Amino acid sequence: MNWKIIKSHLRVVFLTFEMTFRQNMVDSFILFTIVVQPLLIAILAMWMLRERGGDYAIFVIVGSGMSGLWSSLLFVSGNSITSERWNGNLEGLVASPTPIQFAVFGKAMANVTQSLLSMIASYSVVAVLFDVQLRMEQPLVFFSSLVLTMLTFMTFGLIISSVFVINPDVQRWQNGLEFPIFILAGFLFPISLLPGWTNPLSYILAPYWATRVLHAATVGLATSSEIILTWSMMILFGILYIALSGRMFKKMLYRARVEATLNMQ
Amino acid sequence: MIKKFTFNMRLFWQGASLSYVALFRWLTPITYMASKIVSPLAQMIFFVVLGMYATGKDSAPFYVIGNAMQITAVSGIYGVTMSIGGDRWTGTLPYLFGTPANRFFMFTGRALVHILDGMIGVFIGFFWGVALLGLDLNSANPLALLITVLVTTLSTSGLGLLLGSLSLVSLNVMFVNNTVYFLLLLFSGANVDLTKLPLWIQSFSNMLPLTRGIASARMIVNGASLGDVAPLLFQEFIMGMIYISLGYFLFRWFEMQAKRKGTLEAI
User: Fold this and answer.
1) What are the extents of the domains in chain B?
2) pTM of the predicted protein model
3) Where are the strands (E) in A93-243, listed by range?
4) ipTM, 2 decimals?
5) Would you call B55 and A51 a contact, using CB atoms and an 8 Å cutoff?
6) In Å, how far is B164's CA from the nearest CA of chain A?
7) What does each C-alpha distance from B105 to B81, B108, B109, B111 come to in angstroms?
8) Is B46 an interface residue toward A (CB < 8 Å)?
């Protein structure tokens, strides 16, 4: 692949990013998912965890922010190819010389970047409404982990969107997949509260490792070994998601070009 | 007179069943399981575990009851609203408003199946509470609990009817629905002891459906009789009637405005 082709593909990624970003900012469903819902979850969690005492505000902000990130991934990135199918653009996208993965990655990039709004909104509202001290013990680790989290989530977006297109039966579970990940990834409580048999399920979820290191960084418990473990897991999952998505997209393109069943649901 | 009544009842029943069928035309058993069983169960488990993390394992029944009752909002808010608002999106509104049918029966009929569906959802929630989360219903009076669930589902569907009427004039129906659903989760007392919140929040909570229903359900599970919770249930019922009346008023107002301005099919 020469530089000219790479440049052209990157152009597609950034243009899709820009277009999706603009569209999302005026979509009330997306604004609810990335701003309103995490904010309301943050307020509720603040009220509930008040009984527990201690320095829980930053924990709530990170947890509710992660919930926004996951909801956005599930409902917005998850629908990124399906929505093109509904709009009748999917065949055009598939037929264009740039592989469709680049367009989908641009969309996932926009969605995940916008999801950061959930953390920013939770931070602002909790600070103002609850008048609490918000301290970040390891800011460098936190922000580095956040960047890695975003990248992992973008690759997860590639998987989830292609799975939903290839297998509409899986997409029917979309509504039922939101809260289970809130639970298994330990966004707002430690997974040690859950029955032991659920822990392996948490370990195979990238959001769990992301949440674990982000929570640890806020309270200064992100030791070197913890950082190495969590980052390695996120990188491993990222690579796995990219490899799997390659196969998924291949299958999708086969359906588009050979079976001509892509626009059928 | 009897003929007219029979006609209106037929309209009520047909509106009730057909609007439900039309709303869930996309429904398959998998979708129903995901939307009505798995999703509410997962939401319930999330808030119950969060509550236990906050206040200890002994407080689990408080959260189980609150969240089981809150499940009624899935049908009461989303289902009822979409049953009314769906006519606008599918283009059937002009036909509906072109008929001489009784508007009150047409309007309220949309909620009936969702009330039954919502009640089933709440009982599924209680079942999960007993089976998975250790809820003890031995002291509960079944009839009192049934009436509490019925009245609460009715009042929540009343708010759904009001939102349904709003969906005829608003483009952001899902935004409104989602926000109201989460506001109920926040202010109905499903997850927070309302007496520990500021007075203005308590006043706001008292204007919502569900609040008194959840309080009644908690009392019944703790052994209270139907007589003990009757005042709360009466207030919950009145609250539902207020929301239904407001919704109906808005529905009629929308019809008049839309006919006058020619905006019946504006989307």
Assistant:
1) 15-260
2) 0.88
3) none
4) 0.89
5) yes
6) 17
7) 16, 5, 6, 10
8) yes
